[in-house]
């Protein structure tokens, strides 16, 4: 098995993200790896909507999304600190989740990405897209997918 020294763990509010975190905790401990937890506050979900009519709602949405992401990152970070694992966090905005994850992976020169996948298939996957699938197809480094 390869020695992983830099592991990236993208998280969102889903329970499957926390399953990926548990896998990352165990692997990082066994590999004496450094972990970076990343959360992406996605690009505007209201594309195509009259901006001026909903500007206050957009502002509130992004403020709440960022606050929630920061709290989640801090909570997860404490789990790694308790286990004596070197950990950093990153909050990325203004890009899609796929772009944000790939940017951070490239910047940090990570050896492995560990992330959750909801396992959507068919029409649901086509409509929602799949960040995990995008990462798998676009990322040149190993990706460990944790499924529900």
From TrEMBL:
UniProt-listed Pfam families: Usp (PF00582)
Domain UspA residues, every copy: 4-147
Main location group: cytoplasm
Keywords in alphabetical order: Cytoplasm
Signal peptide region: none
Coiled-coil ranges (or none): none
Keyword Signal appears in the UniProt entry: no
Compartment list: Cytoplasm
GO CC terms: cytoplasm
InterPro entries the UniProt entry points to: Rossmann-like_a/b/a_fold (IPR014729), Universal_stress_UspA (IPR006015), UspA (IPR006016)
Family, as annotated: Belongs to the universal stress protein A family.
Listed PANTHER family: STRESS RESPONSE PROTEIN NHAX, UNIVERSAL STRESS PROTEIN HP_0031
Protein's name in the database: Universal stress protein
Organism the protein comes from: Acinetobacter gandensis
Phylogenetic lineage: Bacteria, Pseudomonadati, Pseudomonadota, Gammaproteobacteria, Moraxellales
């Amino acid at each position: 098995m390869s020695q992983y020294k830099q592991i990236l763990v993208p998280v969102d509010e889903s329970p499957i993200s926390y399953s990926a975190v548990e896998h990352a905790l165990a692997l990082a401990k066994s590999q004496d790896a450094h972990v970076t937890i990343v959360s992406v506050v996605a690009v505007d979900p209201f594309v195509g909507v009259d901006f001026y009519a909903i500007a206050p709602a957009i502002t509130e949405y992004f403020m709440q999304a960022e606050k929630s992401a920061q709290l989640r990152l801090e909570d997860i970070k404490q789990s790694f600190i308790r286990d004596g694992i070197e950990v950093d966090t990153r909050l990325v905005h203004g890009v899609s989740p796929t772009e944000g994850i790939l940017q951070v992976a490239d910047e940090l020169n990570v050896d492995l990405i560990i992330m959750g996948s909801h396992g959507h298939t068919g029409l649901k996957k086509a409509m929602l897209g799949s960040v995990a699938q995008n990462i798998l197809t676009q990322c040149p480094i190993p990706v460990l997918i944790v499924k529900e």
